[in-house]
Amino acid sequence: MSDSKALKEISSKFNEDTLTDIVRVVAGRNDVRLVNYKMTNATSPGDNYITCVYRIAVEGTSLDGGQNYSFSLIVKGLPPNLGRRKTFHSTYSFANEVAFYEKVMPTLMEFQKRKNVKNPFNEVPR
Fold first, then answer.
1. How far apart are CA 107 and CA 100, in angstroms?
2. What pLDDT is stored for residue 125 in this prediction?
3. Which of 3, 13, 45, 120 is deepest in the core (most CB within 10 A)?
């Protein structure tokens, strides 16, 4: 298992329990456990000044060991340096993105469900 301290670079609230919850969503079942993960930078140094972008390779398994899950995540977080956050108005810059995931996307998904769309658009980060 990778160092759980590295996950704190994303957020103080992002931890191995968060990854286990994500494995549950990907697996579509609750009886899973996190086996391993590896976090790396998803971009080259200097590419992003408003956010930090990470790639996390995740491995999980069902509790009975009958099914394995392996997938990759892209996770964004605010820069750890408070000065950088303030200089580039990082929190403000995320406002539209937060609104999209909290309001627009759920509304679109519900609309598509009500209209019985055969191939609904759902190719967005979650």
1. 10
2. 66
3. 120
Q: How confident is the model at residue 117 (pLDDT cuts 50, 70, 90)?
A: very high
The more confident residue out of 89 and 55 is: 55
**Which residues have C-beta within 8 Å of that of residue 75, sequence separation ≥ 6?**
10, 14, 53, 54, 55, 56
Which residues 6+ apart lie within 8 Å of 22 measured at CB?
Answer: 58, 73
Domain ranges of the chain: 1-77, 81-117
Q: Could you tell me where the DSSP H helices lie in 1-126?
A: 4-7, 16-27, 82-87, 90-93, 95-99, 105-114
What CATH number labels 1-77? 3.10.450
